[in-house]
Amino acid sequence: MIEPQDCKPNMDSNIAESGLHEDVIAKIRDGLKGRTLVFIGLMGAGKSCIGRMVAKELKLDFVDADREIEEAAGCSIADIFKLYGEEAFRDGEERVIARLLDGEQIVLATGGGAFIRERTRQLILEKSVSVWLRADLDLLMHRTSGRTHRPLLNNGDPRQILADLIETRYPVYAGADIIFDCDESSKEATRDAVLELLANSFDDDGQLIKTGT
């Protein structure tokens, strides 16, 4: 099972070890055409963990949008919510994501609410290839249980909050270019499956084929 705390920057992974082939990676890179690859989804879906692993295989830098926002603001996401409110956070998030998408090609993990904001969503859809890591409620609960750094889960029953977020956000996430269903597979198996899906999401001419339902 993918556990966020297990996903460290020093993990060793390469094409031979993962059982992937160079032509899979080449097809993905050709399909991206220099565009950034953006992972979206709810908290606990594994965006940072899998995004970091996929970036390593694609030989691209990985960036966590929330970390960029914290650096720009000089305080934590939780503090931004507490001191300035969610709307101010979303404004800053939009500016940071716009800057990143206008920069060099990377693999980017966004916060759970980024794709929900229309202007941010349009930026992602216009300038990148987006992948929704879709996970069910039980899996998300397991991965977020006992963690205090997620502001949206700190003001009520976490399970009900996540259930409500699934109801309101999943129909919007469905607009992503590619949809990947998470399960309890290891992070390595999930990485490989995401890469295979990505490779199969481009036709022979390198055009994107929308996947998932």
UniProtKB/TrEMBL annotation:
Subcellular location field: Cytoplasm
Cofactor: Mg(2+)
Sequence positions that bind Mg(2+): 48
InterPro entries: P-loop_NTPase (IPR027417), Shikimate/glucono_kinase (IPR031322), Shikimate_kinase/TSH1 (IPR000623), Shikimate_kinase_CS (IPR023000)
Positions of substrate binding: 66, 90, 112, 169
Enzyme class, broadest EC rank: transferase
Known catalytic reactions: shikimate + ATP = 3-phosphoshikimate + ADP + H(+)
CDD domains registered for this protein in UniProt: SK
Tree of life domain: Bacteria
EC numbers for this chain: 2.7.1.71
Family listed: Belongs to the shikimate kinase family.
Functional summary from the UniProt entry: Catalyzes the specific phosphorylation of the 3-hydroxyl group of shikimic acid using ATP as a cosubstrate.
Record's protein name: Shikimate kinase
Organism in which the protein naturally occurs: Thalassospira indica
Gene, per the UniProt record: aroK
